Amino acid sequence: MKTPILVDCDGVLSDLIGSVLMLARERAGIYKTEADIVHYDYGKALEWPRWWVEVENAVRDREFVYRMHPYPGSFKALRELEAKVGRENVFVCTKAWKGLPEWMAQRSAWLQDFAGVPTERQIFCSDKALIPGLLIDDDPENMKGRDFHSAYCVERPWNVGAPFTRGTFEALVASLQDRGEL
Ligand SMILES: [Mg+2]
Predict the structure, then answer these.
(1) Same domain, 125 and 41
(2) Cα distances (Å, whole numbers) of residue 65 to 3, 11, 12, 17, 146
């Protein structure tokens, strides 16, 4: 069996923080950029403890998740990854938002409609440690317990210093050998 490749969505494919920053400007008059987000705790980084309340409202009222932008180049890298290791070995592994079923519904539709990842290659999971494979993620918390070869940290301002191999999604895909080598 080949090693499954698990690609996180928010922070790797979808620009969650870009949408949160837009909401912060609109709803709280907080003007920050991605470079200011040096904690994974967005409330702390934005000095906006209510951020999640506004996000939940935006998910319910205006398709916050479905309207999220992808990171430039991320879909192209995903296609290259699928071409290299086989589409059937590439999954998107993402967390659902607890108590907010609309998040999962919109994320699933976003993955299918924009990212070209059908439901059979979508994994919604609260604990990614339970899923074997190479995890590509922006949150070092999700990689805990994985060895050096089964985790790759997509570099963002909030994960500087993470104790895993760190770089861009594109660089990882470029470094992988062609199909059959994994
Ligand atoms: Mg993430």
Answers:
(1) no
(2) 29, 13, 14, 11, 28
Q: List residues, by chain if needed, whose CB lies under 5 Å from ion ligand 1.
A: 8, 10-11, 138-139
Please tell me the distance between residue 14's alpha carbon and the centre of ligand 1 in angstroms: 9
Any idea what DSSP says for residue 121? G
Of 62, 77, 99, the position where a domain reaches its end is 62
Using a cut of 0.90, tell me whether the model's pTM lies above it. yes
- CA 83 – ligand 1 centroid, Å: 23
Does residue 143 contact residue 151 with C-beta atoms inside 8 Å?
Answer: yes
What is the whole-number distance in angstroms between the Cα of residue 9 and the centre of ligand 1?
A: 6
Q: How far is the CA of 70 from the centre of ligand 1 (A)?
A: 13
- Average pLDDT of 12-38? 97
Residues 83 and 54 in one domain: no
The number of folded domains in the chain is: 2
Name the DSSP class of 116: -
* Confidence label for 1 from pLDDT (cuts 50, 70 and 90): low
CA of 31 to the centre of ligand 1 (A): 22
Instruction: For residue 61, give every residue at least 6 positions away whose Cβ sits within 8 Å of its Cβ, in sequence order, or none.
Output: none
For 47, the domain range is: 16-62
Alpha helices in 69-149 (DSSP H): 74-85, 101-113, 140-143
Mean pLDDT of 1-16: 93
